[in-house]
Amino acid sequence: MTGVPVVVCRACDGLTFTVDTCVCTYDGDRLFVEGDRPGDGTAYRDCQLCQGVGRVARPCRPCGQTGRRRAQLVLTMANVDTGAVASANVVPGVVEPAPWPGGGDWHLPLAPLVRELAAAVGAGSWRDVRMPNRSPDGPVVFLPRRWKPGLPEPTRRALEAAAIAAESGWPWYLLLGRTAVDPPRDLAADLGRWCRLADLLYLDLVVEARRRHSHADDLSWSIRYEIPGGAVPAEAHGWADDLPGAIAATTLHDAMYGLIERGRAAPAHYLAGRDRECPQAPSVDLDQLERRIVADCTDVATGAATAGAQAVWRDGRWWHTSLRTAGTTETFVERSTGQIACRQAVVLRRGWQPPAPDHPSGTSTAATATRTVGCGPAPARWPVDLPIRTASSVPAPAAARPRCAA
């Protein structure tokens, strides 16, 4: 088979659209949906999507409404130290199929091809740009069960093309490599750097353990940044089984994700610049920190299980507190089908609030300062060449100002 084969999209059979079950059938023929109780599979008679039919047509996303998919994957290895780049096209016939370890299915082993690219650019270690935690051996392409070594070559190549096309949702895999082998990740050092960043940005770094189920022993661990004084989020943001697993599964982007939404109800702070030494990354004992958080998941006085516990990094130290149930809330949401859903969530609160952060106030002895206007991504600034008045001589603002750092 020469060239890049194009196969019919298996999702839509070449029609460019799919006919799927409408989401209204999950809740059944009822206007008001309470809780997570599923319906009987009947379509909602006044559904705004399917008009009560129960089926709805949607554009086919895998093929981009073309009805065809290219049976091609591109693997690119780039050495960021030397700038060397090498690529390989994965099409039927390039990689010889091999049985999956343990028997059963056949697959296209791409690991040898990835290692050849790494050797070509002199990379000792590499990562997938889109999914850094993905295996360095590249994607796994399983062949259809009908594929057998004894089949005629055109049939085998056609089945391989169908398998490659099914993986072409991300047709280009970019791997960034380094000449030297990356040392093992130091999880304690990573957490220490995140603590230092929290001090620099006047944020809280929260290490949280929540019970997955009421009174269950298994905990769900997560790490995130918060604005001091914000409420405890209703939903957990991580599913790691322990603290090291939470650090390994969290990136800086993950820890910052949702910071604005979580901080909308937090009290505002007016920050003024002050001369201070740049904080250093603290040394963190992960085992001690984890054991303390786990201990706070049990009430000391009664021995009853709490909803969870937190360790909050604020003002250069850890503050520990348990999580308590403070009631439930109900939120009514109109769905795209026209149905009204009632969502119930458990409200959590901290058993003990850490002291207010020691943020710099408006007091300053500097002769020149820079003040911030607004709280946008690129605030306007202008120099003030006059001595700044002390906080005692400046009247308090009538309304709380946005939390901006000077």
Number of strands: 19
Low-confidence stretches: 362-406
Radius of gyration, in Å, reads 28 Å
Strand content: 25-35%
Give the SSE string.
EEHEEEEEEEHEEHEHEEHHHHEEEEE
State mean pLDDT (0 to 100 scale). Answer: 83
Q: How many individual helices? A: 8
Please state the overall shape, judged from the principal axes of the Cα atoms: globular
Strand order of the largest sheet: 3-17-16-15-13-14
Helix content: 10-25%
Distance between the termini: 64 Å
Our count of domains comes out at 3
**Strand pairing plus helix content: what structural class?**
alpha+beta
Give the biggest beta sheet: 6 strands, mixed
Detailed description of the structure:
This protein is of the alpha+beta class and 406 residues long. It folds into 3 domains: 17-59, no CATH class; 69-178, no CATH class; 187-350, no CATH class. The chain is 17% helix and 28% strand. It has helices at residues 24-27, 111-121, 153-166, 187-201, 243-248, 252-256, 259-262, 286-296, and strands spanning 6-8, 17-21, 32-34, 55-59, 68-70, 73-79, 85-90, 98-99, 106-108, 125-128, 141-142, 172-178, 204-211, 219-226, 308-314, 317-334, 340-350, 369-373, 380-384. Strand 6 (73-79) and strand 7 form a beta hairpin. It is globular. Residues 363-372 have a biased composition (Low complexity).
